[in-house]
Amino acid sequence: MNALLVILAVIAVILLFVGGFTASLKFLLWVGIVLLVIAVIMWLLRTLTGRRS
């Protein structure tokens, strides 16, 4: 019975970490998409206005 509890505890901890990493990866994916959109908008504005840095 103790071995079963240990196995369940290990599985629970692994699922907890995987769930946390997955949530943070989804958040970072959205942050990356937003930054990419901002970069494209800035590039378009610089191209259309003719400013050269």
Q: What this model shows, in words?
A:
The protein is built from one helix and no strands. The protein is mostly helical.
Descriptive terms for the model:
transmembrane; DUF2207 domain-containing protein; membrane; transmembrane helix; 1 helix; mainly alpha
What is shown here, in short?
With 53 residues, this protein is mainly α. It contains one helix and no strands.
Number of strands: 0
Q: Tell me about the largest β-sheet.
A: none
Strand content: under 5%
What is the oligomeric state here? single chain
Give the low-confidence spans: none
Q: Tell me the distance between the termini.
A: 70 Å
**In percent, how helical is the residue content?**
over 70%
Label the overall shape.
rod-shaped
Structural class: mainly alpha
The whole-number mean of residue pLDDT values reads 84
Radius of gyration: 22 Å
Transmembrane segments: 5-21, 27-45
Protein name: DUF2207 domain-containing protein
Keywords: Membrane, Transmembrane, Transmembrane helix
